[in-house]
Amino acid sequence: NVLWALATMGEKADRGLLEAMQRRAMVTAGAFKRQEVATLLWALATMGERADEGLLEAMRRRATATAGEFKPQDVANLLWALAAMGERPDRGLLEAMQKRATATARELTPQDVANVLWSLATMGEKADRGLLEAMQRRAMVTAGAFKRQEVATLLWALATMGERADEGLLEAMRRRATATAGEFKPQDVANLLSALATMGERADRGLLEAM
After folding, report:
1. 22-48 pLDDT, tens per residue?
2. What is the pLDDT of residues 132-187, one digit of tens each?
3. How many angstroms separate the CA atoms of 144 and 149, rounded?
4. What would the 3-class secondary structure string for the chain be?
5. Which site from 39, 55, 86, 114 is most exposed, i.e. has the minimal number of CB atoms within 10 Å?
6. How many other CB atoms are found less than 10 A from the CB of residue 201?
7. What are phi and psi of 79, to 5 degrees?
8. Handedness of CA 157, 160, 163, 169 (dihedral sign)
9. How far apart are the C-alpha atoms of 5 and 132, rounded to whole Å?
10. In whole angstroms, how far apart are CA 182 and each of 89, 188, 189, 211?
11. What is the pTM of this model?
12. Between 34-46 and 72-84, two packed helices, what is the crossing angle to 10 degrees?
């Protein structure tokens, strides 16, 4: 909670506190609950810090052991943190997190969907077929709530993994991108158009003019 609070306020822990927190987390790693694992790594990544190798390994083991208890946001936060740190999960953890995300897909928010797929794509991993289908179904159901960055991130992640979005999802994301075009940042525009081009798709006239 100390690290989460600092990260949420946009502050960075000083070096002494950071080292003390990581040492304590190592000593108590076996008692970490699923949310505490995800929150610790999310906080470090948000502050631009990389966890010590020993702590990373301990948290990977704990995440794998408690994977069946992970909530959707825990999965998204854990994968995002590893990707943001430039880390890759071992095969066991990756399979456990994909399985859990698939099982809880109906509870995922648009941000969770985008973050899970972004994390996998950034780590050079591909979503397994079950997860990919579950993520696309959830994105279809929640398409109207997608924010501009989530639209661009979702399509960028699918394209980066060498996947083509389902036609219905593509159409829903095109409509959402057109509706939110005035909020797009330059990076969002680039990611969206790059994703469509990589998938062999073309933006319709309204979307193209808006972008």
Report:
1. 899 999 999 999 999 999 999 999 999
2. 999 999 999 999 999 999 999 999 999 999 999 999 999 999 999 999 999 999 99
3. 13
4. CHHHHHHHCCCCCCHHHHHHHHHHHHHCHHHCCHHHHHHHHHHHHHCCCCCCHHHHHHHHHHHHHCHHHCCHHHHHHHHHHHHHCCCCCCHHHHHHHHHHHHHCHHHCCHHHHHHHHHHHHHCCCCCCHHHHHHHHHHHHHCHHHCCHHHHHHHHHHHHHCCCCCCHHHHHHHHHHHHHCHHHCCHHHHHHHHHHHHHCCCCCCHHHHHHC
5. 86
6. 16
7. -65, -40
8. positive
9. 33
10. 37, 11, 11, 9
11. 0.88
12. 40
If phi > 0 it is left, if psi is from -120 to 50 it is alpha, else beta; for residue 52 that is beta
Alpha-carbon span 118 to 120, nearest angstrom = 6
CA 57 to chain centre: 20
At 113, give phi and psi (nearest 5°).
Answer: -60, -50
**In whole angstroms, what is the distance from residue 202 CA to residue 194 CA?**
10
Give the Cα separation of 159 and 129 in Å (integer).
15
Q: In 10 A of CB 99, how many CB atoms?
A: 17
